[in-house]
Amino acid sequence: xxxxxxxxxxxxxxxxxxxxxxxxxxxxxxxxxxxxxxxxxxxxxxxxxxxxxxxxxxxxxxxxxxxxxxxxxxxxxxxxxxxxxxxxxxxxxxxxxxxxxxxxxxxxxxxxxxxxxxxxxxxxxxxxxxxxxxxxxxxxxxxxxxxxxxxxxxxxxxxxxxxxxxxxxxxxxxxxxxxxxxxxxxxxxxxxxxxxxxxxxxxxxxxxxxxxxxxxxxxxxxxxxxxxxxxxxxxxxxxxxxxxxxxxxxxxxxxxxxxxxxxxxxxxxxxxxxxxxxxxxxxxxxxxxxxxxxxx
Length: 296
Ligand code: NAD
Fold this sequence. Notes:
This protein has 296 residues and is of the alpha/beta class. 53% of the residues lie in helices and 13% in strands.
């Protein structure tokens, strides 16, 4: 059955996600501060809302895809925001990647009003958003997850319920902290191998079937040659940009600080990605940090 969906944040990710909801037959009322994003949404068959309040009052489901926690808090809890204007029974889905604490605060405020909310950050990038093959990591109640799933199924391929409110964000930053740390480890090994005269292909062949095996090595090898599909073979065009990795590593550090978890390698990875980004690497693929570690 067609629903009226309000979609706020029609950027690189939100634009194609909203377009997939339109294609599936839903009425999608969009809002973005950018006129270009609004025009692209209209071109894809969506409707334009005059603002957040109007959108929230009209929608049965609201999806947000915004840059950071401060935007999400403002749009949901601020004056003229979603919580002030949503009808009873409206389902709220935030797919932005934000800090766990903000996700839990906004979800609790929604619950106080009797509104179901899930945090549903994604992995898969713009390609996945366009193809409708994103992975959604979802935090919220069983009822919230069940209500959100039919809509997430349109925009994604893998939909995982990670637990209560905020656990979607927790899953995303824990996974990406593993990824950031493991990528640096693999890059350091290739740099050391070069110094020792060990051929990159030989290291790949040995480690990909030995205890050094990991996704950063075998699915995303950071040096050209062994894995033709990896960004290393196209001068580190992203892929997954280093600045996005830095964002997620900073969120992981915020969460570690506020929860008291010791994550010394996560802290080191965040520091190294900050140095890499500040030295001009922010727009390159995150595996390009191998060049920085090599000193080139
Ligand atoms: P983007 O900057 O392209 O889009 C964000 C959009 O939000 C912009 O169009 C902006 O105008 C709009 N916006 C900001 N404040 C607003 C407000 N107050 N009202 C209305 N619109 C507002 O960013 P993106 O790449 O689409 O990323 C969105 C989210 O998805 C981020 O949290 C990001 O971390 C996450 N994410 C991105 C990728 C990726 O590959 N780009 C991958 C996974 C997750």
